[in-house]
Structure formats: structure tokens, C-alpha cells
Design a protein that fits this description.
The chain is built from eight helices and eight strands, in the order ααβααββαβαββββαα. It is of the alpha+beta class and 204 residues long. The strands form three sheets. The chain has a four-stranded antiparallel sheet. It has a two-stranded parallel sheet with strand order 1-2. Strand 7 and strand 8 form a beta hairpin.
């Protein structure tokens, strides 16, 4: 599993737990999960049902996108550290799967329609792949942001954490690839000055 690498979200959570034990009332949520929970009113706290993620974002926390569940070895590992996976980790839906209706407060604040719903999202590099309209096995897309991500559409998943290669589920196919943290360095070296990057960032 790709999560068995030093840079995975699970590895970071375990390191965090070693440095400062995770408390029983603390929860793990990706940025997208946190925002979705606030829009749907499902977050952790009084009246909340917890956080919900999508299986693309949840891959790096250890979610098994083949079996569509958290693996038993991971649940047992967390339990051995005194952590309850069912409480600590977000529930998972497919990208586009229903999370809930937008709360009235959020609808009023942001001017959203009454039938607006919150659904599972995806990662930025998968969104870039979809935006490139690649649809046939063997087609690949690279996207450059804070990281350089490479995704190749395949009918077969490929996972090898020793090489940083992993597969995201995309419908009934797979996005095989990996990422490098050279993104910002490439932008600075090949295209933009520091001042230009600061200006562009301010526009977002």
C-alpha cells in the first residue's frame, strides 16, 4: 500500500501521535473534508456526525481503494496505539457521492440554491487529469503546481511504494502515477521570478 511510505498522511499522523498523543476527541480530516463538513453541518462537535472524505483524498491516509474500506492491518495498528479508527478517521464516499445538503446558514451566507448538495470531491492532480479530457488507457497527464504530478490512465492498478508509484481509482479504471515536490522550484527556475510568483499568488 502506498501509505507504507515515510511521506504518507498516515505516517505523519503516527509521527504526530508519537510527539503529542492524539486525544480521544480529536479527528483527522483533510482540508476538503473540513470545508465539506462546515457546508453540510456534519463536522465533529455537538450534533455533528463526523467528517466525510472521498476515496481519492483518503488514499494517503490508508484507505484501500481496491476493497473500498480501511484495511484491517491499519485498524489494528491504530488500535495498538490506543486509537479508534472508526472515530479518528473520516467516513469515505466515492467522488461525487452524497455527503449532505448545505445548511441554511451556509446557503444564506454564500447565496447558494435551496437544492444545493455537498458531494465528495477529489485531489487537485486528478481534477487536472479530468480537465485535460484524457479518456483512453495509455493516455497520461502531468500537472505542475506545488508538486509535479504524473497520472496515466490504466485498466490495471500498479502500486510500488519503493518507487513512489501508486494508483487512484477513477471509475472502473485506474490512474497510475506519482508526484515530486519540485513544482515550486521548476516554476521559479524556468518561468517566474519570486516577485511574479508573489503577484500571481495574490490574485488567487
Amino acid at each position: 500500500h502506498t501509505v507504507r511510505s515515510a511521506t504518507s498522511t498516515l505516517a505523519k499522523v503516527l509521527q504526530w501521535h508519537q510527539e503529542s498523543p492524539i486525544l480521544p476527541d480529536e479527528r483527522i480530516a483533510h482540508q476538503a473534508d473540513f470545508l465539506a463538513a462546515h457546508l453540510a453541518g456534519t463536522g465533529h462537535g455537538p450534533g455533528g456526525t463526523g467528517y466525510t472524505s472521498d476515496y481519492n483524498n483518503a488514499l494517503k491516509i490508508g484507505y484501500d481503494v481496491h476493497a473500498l474500506e480501511y484495511p484491517a492491518w491499519m485498524v489494528e495498528l491504530l488500535a495498538s496505539l490506543g486509537l479508534d479508527a472508526t472515530l479518528l478517521l473520516p467516513a469515505v464516499v466515492r467522488p461525487g457521492g452524497q455527503i449532505g445538503a448545505v445548511t441554511e446558514a451556509a446557503r444564506q451566507r454564500w447565496g447558494l440554491r435551496e437544492d444545493c448538495r455537498v458531494v465528495g470531491g477529489t485531489t487537485d492532480s486528478i481534477a487536472a487529469f479530468i480537465a485535460a479530457r484524457a479518456s483512453k488507457p495509455g493516455q497520461a497527464v502531468s500537472s505542475l503546481g506545488s508538486t509535479l504530478a504524473i497520472k496515466l490512465l490504466s485498466t490495471t492498478p500498479v502500486d510500488d511504494s519503493s518507487f513512489g508509484v501508486y494508483s487512484h481509482r477513477l471509475g472502473d479504471m485506474w490512474l497510475v502515477g506519482g508526484a515530486s515536490n519540485v513544482g515550486c522550484a521548476v516554476l521559479r527556475q524556468e518561468k517566474f521570478s519570486g516577485a511574479e510568483l508573489a503577484e500571481l499568488s495574490a490574485r488567487i
